[in-house]
Amino acid sequence: MAIVPRQHPARPETNVPNRPRSLDPQELGFTRKGPIGWLAPLLLLSTGLRAVLHLFFGAYLDKRELQNALDGDVFDHSTTATGELWLDYVADLGDGFDATYSVAYLLSQEELEVDGERLPRGRLLLMGGDQVYPLASGDGYENRMKGPYRAALPEAPAGAPRPTLFALPGNHDWYDGLTAFLRLFARRKDGHIGGWRTEQRRSYFAVKLPADWWLFAVDEQFGAYIDDPQLLYFEKAAEQVGADDRVIIMTPSPTWVKAKDNPHAYDAVDYFIRTILAPTQAQVRVLVSGDLHHYARFSGEDRELITCGGGGAYTLGTQNLPDHIMVPPKETLTRSRSRSLRYDLRGAFPDAPTSRRMGWGVFHRIPRRNAGFANLLGVIHTLTMLAMAGAASQGGNIQRLFSIPLVLMLVLIMAGTIAFAKPDGHARHWVLGVAHGLTQIALAIGGTWVWLQLPFRDWPWPGPLAVAAFVYGPVIALASSQVVALYLLIATRFDVNVNELFAGQGIEDAKSFLRMHITPDGSLTIHPIGVDRICHDWVADPDGDPHASWLRPASPLTAHRIEPPIRIN
């Protein structure tokens, strides 16, 4: 397998559109999208159906086997004029425009001043997964990822090499079997996204870096396994890795953290290290991943385990992260696993106290950001109330014909709340799901009692139905959403529905990315960059340089170090 040297083709000037003078989609060439309401009923249904389809048909949709017919190049970025290399890492970016573009804008600037130090833009931009939400499609990539990043860096500065972009798919990129992902990142010769050129030909890749460093990006489909063509690709790449080399591994998910609840989650990564890299005697010094939308670093005697999923999606709190983890977990059934080592939590953003404060915002954010979800709760409760009221008062035939049988509504509520708790064999999921269902039923009983005390039920039909739909429905929807919010706040204390607590809020602040620096002497310095507040007010810059961002923040967008630089010698 040949190493493909880095090339710097002439910039396609004719492909660069005129700089927009406004934020109009016709001028930008894409539509700015708002943050996704992750509890929207149709989105929950669609995502659930796709997860089920993947469970039954994932092997048939897996395009990794077919990628064996594509070029199997290893990319060489080891030679630079100064013997050093700056590279950036970002993940989980294709959500709402303001958050995604805030990070893209910072990544695109020629340099960032962070805590008094100037850090130049990375020559490589590594995207660690979930480049689009909620589902992979051509339009989704265009509006939620490609368009914002093209606007942030329309072209490379004159006389400078074009920076290169590599992308690893996450689970949301996988929902169409990688069709749109490969079309955007891997199929075209001399492809580019704004000023970044794309080189990869597969969904996984190996890159030779300066000073005997390597980057291996492994595509494990939903954490299940690593396909044979991919293993063959990395086996050939590893033939060029020396005993004194150091390796950075990119994975789609921080399985070292998820193995706490699922001991088998880390097996594929551990197998990759043992079978592909261990025979070379090279040292795996860094594992980096997105998927969890926060920054967290676990440090051990041999390597750093970093999660950095703050590229644009909703922020996920860190209050439930353990103080330490054992990797691989001792509970795994893999007999040939590596020796289990302890890794301690050294840094997190947002930190645990801030994450807890964010969690309390669920009461006002759930109904405000998820109107469809609240409306669904209102419909379910209204129908349940009508069924209860009909059973209690033995109304007329028309009313009884309209009402959904009470038993059916109660079963629906209990089944929905238990499913929402994601029962996976742990008793706490079942207990919390049942408790949530009983609380919702208690609310329905209380709402029915209030309804029976009011004169509306004695009005001529369909008067009671109209009042129930336009008065009772909105009130009970708000009350029910507050019950959901209270449930999420309590369930999180037991490590249940943590993701839903924050997904339902859609918090856009507290973003993060990594800026890494390999020096000629072989040391690697990782700068974890945080953004406390994203920008919501953008101004077009029609008179800027061709390579300058099309849109700039109306007020300064400030970045800071999450923790001191991490130096690996």
TrEMBL record:
Q: Which Gene3D superfamilies match?
A: 3.60.21.10
Q: Which residues cross the membrane?
A: 38-61, 373-392, 398-421, 430-452, 464-490
Q: Which InterPro entries match?
A: Metallo-depent_PP-like
Which SUPFAM superfamilies does the annotation name?
Metallo-dependent phosphatases
Sorted keywords for this record are: Membrane, Transmembrane, Transmembrane helix
Region annotation Disordered: where it falls in the sequence: 1-25
Protein name per UniProt: Metallophosphoesterase
